[in-house]
Specification:
Blueprint: H1 4-13, H2 18-37, E1 40-46, H3 63-71, E2 80-85, H4 91-105, E3 109-113, E4 116-117, H5 120-126, E5 130-133, E6 138-139, E7 145-146, E8 149-150, H6 151-167, H7 172-179, H8 186-209, H9 216-228, H10 230-233, H11 242-247, E9 252-254, H12 259-278, E10 281-287, E11 292-296
Parallel strand pairs: 1-2, 2-3, 3-5, 4-6, 5-9
Antiparallel strand pairs: 1-10, 7-8, 10-11
Helix pairs in contact: 1-2, 2-12, 3-4, 4-5, 5-8, 6-8, 8-9
């Protein structure tokens, strides 16, 4: 299968308009992946890495329209391989997308992470029966963000501020400007978002990945603790690789075990990254039939 450079060469040699060249090569290899697995394939790609700062690269409610577009006409009894590349986003939007896909494919969904699925992207993967990762792939903590700030970090900082002021009231002068930035209900919203994120992930693990596992409560507790313990994960941006994901108890398979599958998945990944890097597109939701929902910069 073509590597990064080969894919770019094939795109440049395609005798179409620039944008159509990216589309045709991308769809070609998505179809090849479908032929390999015999399952429906939907790619969900964000361009946050190549277009930092662009609004809309995160998971948002509008994406549900994209999924509705690409799910239409797919055979529902063939299962779904969901390729995820995202920095995460809103828990409400993530929940609505997950529940919609599960209903359509009767829960027969496998997550494929060729590179990175962080935050709510990790929640999306945990809602599947199995996760396929490469040795270089990463998932991340599932603590939500409020206004771009990790909610768990806010709670930890607020507790630190409280403790330090109790011990030494003079520290109000130091912490005052930071506390002044907290609007009414902000701390409560952070606490509610953390609770929502954890409860939904726990529910999905019980319903899908560990539905037939013995001692599933213990397994789920282990996974949730590893993905949410702020003292352990330290930063929202922390990346958890294949070995770590497997060690915390997630049902993870290594794509390198099947060389043909690995080559196809990575070729598909290269196709999407080239599109996001070299066109105005910043988010793509696309199926193996060539039906796509593409958001572009104005």
């Amino acid at each position: 299968m073509p590597n990064w450079r080969d894919v770019l060469k094939e795109i440049s040699e395609t005798q179409n308009q620039a944008r159509l060249a990216f589309d045709s090569v991308r769809q070609k290899y998505l179809q090849k992946l479908h032929e390999k697995t015999g399952r429906n394939v939907i790619a969900y790609y964000s361009g946050w890495q190549s277009k930092p700062g662009v609004s809309g690269t995160e998971i948002r409610d509008e994406d549900r329209n994209g999924f509705m577009t690409v799910v239409h006409q797919l055979p529902k009894n063939a299962g779904l391989d969901l390729i995820i590349h995202t920095p995460g986003g809103g828990i409400a939007a993530t929940q609505s997308i997950v529940l919609y896909l599960q209903e359509k494919f009767d829960g027969n969904i496998r997550a494929i992470i060729p590179h990175t699925a962080m935050s709510a992207g990790t929640i999306m993967a945990c809602s599947c029966r199995e996760i396929l990762m490469a040795r270089h792939s990463s998932i991340g903590p599932i603590d939500p963000q409020i206004r771009g700030i990790p909610a768990a970090g806010v709670i930890a900082e607020f507790k630190r501020i409280f403790d330090e002021i109790v011990q030494d009231p003079r520290k109000q002068l130091v912490w005052g400007p930071i506390l002044a930035q907290y609007t009414p209900t902000f701390i409560g919203n952070c606490e509610n978002a953390i609770k929502w994120s954890e409860e939904f992930t726990r529910e999905q693990l019980a319903k899908n990945m560990f539905s037939k596992s013995r001692g599933r409560k213990k397994k789920i507790d282990s996974v949730i603790k590893a993905l949410t313990d702020y003292d352990e994960v330290k930063l929202h941006e922390r990346q958890i690789n294949y070995k770590q994901a497997k060690s915390i108890g997630l049902n993870v398979s290594l794509i390198e075990k099947d060389q043909d599958l690995q080559d196809l998945i990575l070729t598909v990944h290269h196709c999407y990254m080239h599109t996001l890097s070299n066109t105005q597109a910043f988010k793509i939701i696309e199926n193996n039939l060539g039906v796509a929902f593409i958001k572009q910069m104005a």
